[in-house]
């Protein structure tokens, strides 16, 4: 359905739709989400010690989409009109259906996300995840789990990245810290949480 080349050389699918939203529209969305989403600071237990997650997060979706992150089950907040509109546009372009979105706010280059795969069981076997970038540009880095192979993508405001196929089994991804970035970035990752009966 996505008429773009698969950027992933093996073991998965990555599609990059640069300028999915044009700069003025991306900036308008950034301002709206920055002001109106319910940004929270989360903490995780690392060796029994509570550590702040280096970014702000929040979770929106259909009522049944309970999602576990930072070790805690999160109930979704109801869709805002703007989030629902973005979801509809991404569904139309990608051909995938989503029922929730995890929003991340990186306040500046000191905020980050470590290497991980989005492989929680509530996402199903080969999840499609659509990630919209707003605000400042950041490096998104993929690393193959077995081979010494990295794939770097600089995500700019308005870009849409879709991860699909077997990618989450074979690759990790991260948003590394950087001294160069002084401004905030918002990332919305649209996901489909399977109903409990389907797990
Ligand atoms: O901020 C990004 O581009 C990545 C976010 C991500 O990997 C996630 O939310 O699982
Ligand atoms: Fe992720």
Q: How does this model look, in words?
A:
The protein has helices at residues 23-36, 81-94, 167-170; strands at 13-17, 40-46, 49-61, 67-69, 72-74, 100-106, 113-116, 129-135, 138-144, 150-155, 160-164, 171-175, 185-191. By secondary structure, the protein is α+β, with helices and mostly antiparallel strands. It has one domain (13-181, 189-198): Jelly Rolls, CATH 2.60.120.590. Strands 1-11-8-13-6-3-2 form a seven-stranded antiparallel β-sheet. The model has no long low-confidence stretch (mean pLDDT 95). This is Alkylated DNA repair protein. InterPro entries: AlkB-like (IPR027450), AlkB-like_sf (IPR037151), ALKBH3 (IPR032854), Oxoglu/Fe-dep_dioxygenase_dom (IPR005123).
List the helices and strands and how they pair.
Elements: E1 13-17, H1 23-36, E2 40-46, E3 49-61, E4 67-69, E5 72-74, H2 81-94, E6 100-106, E7 113-116, E8 129-135, E9 138-144, E10 150-155, E11 160-164, H3 167-170, E12 171-175, E13 185-191
Antiparallel strand pairs: 1-11, 2-3, 3-6, 4-5, 6-13, 7-12, 8-11, 8-13, 9-10, 9-12
- Runs in which pLDDT lies below 50 for 5 or more consecutive residues are none
User: According to CATH, what is the class?
Assistant: Mainly Beta
Average predicted local confidence, pLDDT: 95
CATH architecture: Sandwich
Number of strands: 13
* CATH fold-level assignment: Jelly Rolls
What portion of the residues fall into strands of 2 or more residues?
35-45%
User: What is the domain tally?
Assistant: 1
| Estimated helix fraction | 10-25%
Number of helices: 3
Biggest sheet, strands in spatial order?
1-11-8-13-6-3-2
In one word, what is the shape?
globular
**Name of the CATH superfamily:** Alpha-ketoglutarate-dependent dioxygenase AlkB-like
Task: Write down the Rg.
Answer: 16 Å
Order of helices and strands: EHEEEEHEEEEEEHEE
Bound molecules: 2-oxoglutaric acid, fe (ii) ion
